[in-house]
Amino acid sequence: MTVLRASAERLAASTAALETLPGFANHEPSADEFAVLDPSTEQRIATLPSYSAEYAVEQVAIADEAGRAWAATTPRYRSDVLHSVYAHLMANRDRLAFVISREMGKTLAEAQGEVQYASDYVRWYADELLRPAGGYRENPAGGSTILTKRAPVGLALLIAPWNFPMAMITRKIAPALAAGCGSVIKPAGLTPLTTLLTVELMAEAGVPRELMRIVTTTNPGPFSEAVLGDPRVRKISFTGSTEVGSTLMGLAAKNIVKSSMELGGNAPVLVFDDADLERAVEGVFLAKMRNGGQSCVAANRIFVQDGIADAFAEALAEKMASVQLGDAVSEGADLGPVIDRRAVDRLTALVADATDRGAELRAGGAAPDEPGYFFEATLLDRVPGDSDIANTEIFGPVAAMSRFGSEDEAIALANGTPFGLAGYVFTESLDRALNVADRLETGLVGINNGVPSNVAAPFGGMKQSGLGREGSHEGLEEYQEIRFYNIARRDTA
Ligand code: SIN
To answer: What is the pTM of this model?
Structure first.
């Protein structure tokens, strides 16, 4: 398949968005710098500093002091600032989308969707913080009254992934600011420019710069050790792999740092015979192809019941085959590149292993021999359970389908993994949908819905997919401590 290339106008418009950012006057990186590449072209688009652990600890001091002052502001004040941030992000929607597309590779339409999704977290918390949770209880034995209230947890370390470079930042920083916390932010080395622009826009809209200290670095180990070793840091929120999450939890344990971990997924999709075929194909396509399949909640193992499987595979194959590859900012692309060369090589190896073991290639399957990290939208059917692709997080535009007979078999297949972030059920029976959803060991379930994430929903996983929740009021509690005052009462009669 040929890859659509961006017009000169689109390239110029997207480059104009990059030009305003630090690092754009780019040069060959020195020993303490690193390059940011455009995955559509493999060209360097910025050169940024890789900061030392000492620099990171200096940022801890700045953000901690600013956080204490911020915690003393009123909820109304913080809400007004966050509403201004929302308006300013929206006013810069195109600029943000261009930067996301150029450094991460998602299409411009998807990047615009991400700007809205990311900004919605800011708006949600601007409203939510006006209703602080608190309670009143009576001592069952009498003699005292108990008040509960929430206090900011303190300085937060926020470590974000590259796949949603704006939304994963705002989903952390908005509740941190709403609760009254400062933060030290480590963006992903592959996509730091979106974070730099988002935080710059937040500062222009009124958030003190000292509250949001960004540290770009290619040495995450020493960085995390130094920052989590500093007793001023009271919270970590990390999105990334289970392996790194587990290491960070080990470091956080030293100072008993409150931890939220949004880790790996291996989402099962169950399509039952009684599903509406069109609705199921559309939903599974979205669950697989959103963000080019590079999402922790992406449909990873697609199990389809025997009676509908042939028709489903044919319809999904047709849809996958019609996906047009192109530069992320090109006009007309349905799918941009994946993040880097390693991802292309990994997907190539997964497809080869599956077909060697007997899977049927129904669409795509190849990486075009052109500049850029492209991989075709791919459908594999009858994927054997022992193939690598059935046992790993695919993180790319490759759909791996297999078949099942009974509901019990489907549940056993779905839950047969140490991960438990997202699951999906497609059926027109309400009873079946709810019964199956109840039995899935996942933090979230899309029912006839390929995109279950929502700012009002508590996003997070079970088992090795993580701890804690992001978004919704539960996401605010992650940046708060619950306290109580027990007020003794004497009888005055
Ligand atoms: C993720 O891939 O980590 C986040 C996806 C989402 O928010 O839907």
So the answer is: 0.96
